[in-house]
C-alpha cells in the first residue's frame, strides 16, 4: 500500500512538480492550496507525511503545524519555506515540525528527507510490544528509565511527556552513556538522514526541548550535556 503525502502549498506550479516527482517514487499525493484546507485534510485523511509551506492563505503554516500537534497527531511535518530568517526556522521546529527545507530546493534532497521521515515512523510502528516487565528494551539510567516497549521514558518513576522525536533522541543517547555524538551523527542516527542531508539546528532545538522536560534545571543540565565543539552526550550523574 502506497504512502500518502499531503502537500500544502499555494503555488500550483510547485504543487505540480512535487506531486509528479513523489508520484514517480510511488507515493500517493493529496493537495491543498491554503492552510484551512490543509489542516482539514491533515486531520481527516491521515497522511503519512505533510509537506507544509509557511506562507499560506487563510492560515499560515505555523498555525497549521501548531493545530496538528495540539490534536496529538505525530504525522511527520517538513516545512517548506522561502524565508531565510533564523527565527522562522527555529519557530517551526519549536511548534513541532520535524524538519524544514528552504526554497529553491533540490528534489533529490527533498525526496531523501521524505523517505527518511517515513522510514523512521515505520520503524517505530513496527516495534514489537514486549511485556512491560521484560528487561530487553529497558534502559535503566538511575533517575531516568527508557522503555522501548512502551515508547515511554520516566524520571523518578514519573512518565515524561515526550514527543516521538524527543523520545528517540533520549533513547539513542541513553543507550550509550558518556559517549559524545556530533550533531551530524545524531542527524544520521536519530533523524535517519543517510549521509546527513539535514540542518543541524534541528538537533539543537530538539535537545533544548528535551532538556526542558528531563532536567531539574534546563539552564544547568545534568543528564543531557554539551561538549563544546564536539556534540551531546547522556551523563549518568
Based on the model shown, name its key terms.
single chain; alpha/beta; four-stranded antiparallel beta sheet
Question: TL;DR of this structure?
Answer:
The chain is α/β, with parallel strands linked by helices. Helices cover 40% and strands 19% of the residues. β8 and β9 form a beta hairpin.
Written description of the protein model:
With 237 residues, this protein is of the alpha/beta class. 40% of the residues lie in helices and 19% in strands. The chain has eight helices and eleven strands. It has helices spanning 12-24, 35-44, 61-70, 86-94, 107-125, 164-175, 183-189, 201-214, and strands at residues 4-8, 28-32, 49-53, 77-81, 99-102, 138-141, 144-147, 152-155, 158-159, 224-227, 231-234. The strands form three sheets. The chain has a five-stranded parallel sheet, with helices on both faces. Strands 6-7-8-9 form a four-stranded antiparallel sheet, covered by helices on one side. The longest helix has 19 residues, at 107-125. The protein is elongated. Residues 127-134 have low confidence and may be disordered.
Q: N- to C-terminal separation?
A: 46 Å
Low-confidence runs (pLDDT<50, min 5 residues)?
Answer: 127-134
Radius of gyration: 18 Å
Q: Mean pLDDT score, rounded?
A: 85
Enumerate how many helices there are, as a single number: 8
User: How would you spell out the order of helices and strands?
Assistant: EHEHEHEHEHEEEEHHHEE
* Estimated share of beta-strand residues: 15-25%
Number of strands: 11
Spatially, the strands of the biggest sheet line up as: 2-1-3-4-5
General shape: elongated
Helix/strand-derived class? alpha/beta
Largest sheet properties: 5 strands, parallel
Classify the helix fraction into a percent range: 25-40%
Amino acid at each position: 500500500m502506497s504512502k500518502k503525502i499531503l502537500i500544502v502549498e499555494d503555488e500550483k506550479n510547485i504543487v505540480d512538480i512535487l506531486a509528479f516527482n513523489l508520484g514517480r517514487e510511488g507515493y500517493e499525493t493529496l493537495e491543498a492550496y491554503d492552510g484551512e484546507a490543509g489542516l482539514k485534510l491533515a486531520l481527516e485523511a491521515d497522511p503519512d507525511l505533510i509537506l507544509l509551506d509557511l506562507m499560506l492563505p487563510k492560515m499560515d503554516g505555523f498555525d497549521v503545524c501548531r493545530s496538528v500537534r495540539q490534536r496529538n497527531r505525530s504525522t511527520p511535518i517538513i516545512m517548506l519555506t522561502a524565508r531565510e530568517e533564523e527565527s522562522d526556522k527555529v519557530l517551526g521546529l519549536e511548534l513541532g515540525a520535524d524538519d524544514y527545507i528552504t526554497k529553491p530546493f533540490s528534489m533529490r534532497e527533498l525526496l531523501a528527507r521524505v523517505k527518511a521521515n517515513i522510514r523512521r515512523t515505520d520503524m517505530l510502528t513496527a516495534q514489537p510490544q514486549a511485556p512491560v516487565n521484560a528487561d530487553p528494551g529497558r534502559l535503566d539510567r538511575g533517575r531516568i528509565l527508557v522503555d522501548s516497549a512502551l515508547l515511554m521514558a520516566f524520571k523518578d518513576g514519573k512518565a515524561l511527556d515526550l514527543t516521538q522525536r524527543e523520545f528517540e533522541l533520549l533513547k539513542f543517547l541513553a543507550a550509550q552513556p558518556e559517549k559524545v555524538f556530533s550533531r551530524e551523527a545524531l542527524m544520521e542516527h536519530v533523524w535517519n538522514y543517510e549521509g546527513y542531508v539535514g540542518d543541524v539546528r534541528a538537533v539543537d532545538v530538539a535537545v533544548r526541548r528535551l532538556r526542558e522536560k528531563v532536567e531539574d534545571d534546563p539552564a544547568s543540565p545534568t543528564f543531557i550535556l554539551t561538549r563544546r565543539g564536539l556534540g551531546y552526550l547522556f551523563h549518568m550523574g
